[in-house]
Write a structure and sequence with these properties.
The protein is an all-alpha fold. The chain has two helices and no strands. It is rod-shaped and about 100 Å long.
């Protein structure tokens, strides 16, 4: 190293620092891409869970109104049961 002049040392230092910069940028770019893919997957899972929760809620409503209809034979219970069935079928289709 003592035989190299100052310009050569500076150029060598710049090359080393530039290679570290390029390497860190490549690593961060790959990490960000993986994080973005993970977020997309999580978003899809949340959407599926929301749809499943809506179907579960619609099924619970349907059970309630069918039980009420069986016990009381009211027109309102029949209408609500039919609406709950339609909502449940829509949730299942999703």
């Amino acid at each position: 190293m003592r035989k190299l002049n100052i310009v050569t040392r500076l150029v060598l230092l710049c090359v080393v620092l530039l290679s570290f910069l390029i390497g860190s940028n490549l690593y961060l770019n790959r990490s960000l891409t993986n994080s973005a893919d993970t977020l997309i997957t999580e978003s899809e899972i949340v959407t599926q869970m929301t749809t499943a929760n809506a179907a579960n809620r619609a099924f619970g409503d349907l059970k309630y109104w069918l039980s009420d209809l069986a016990a009381s034979l009211l027109v309102r219970s029949e209408i609500e049961a039919e609406e709950s069935l339609e909502e449940f079928n829509l949730a299942l289709d999703k």
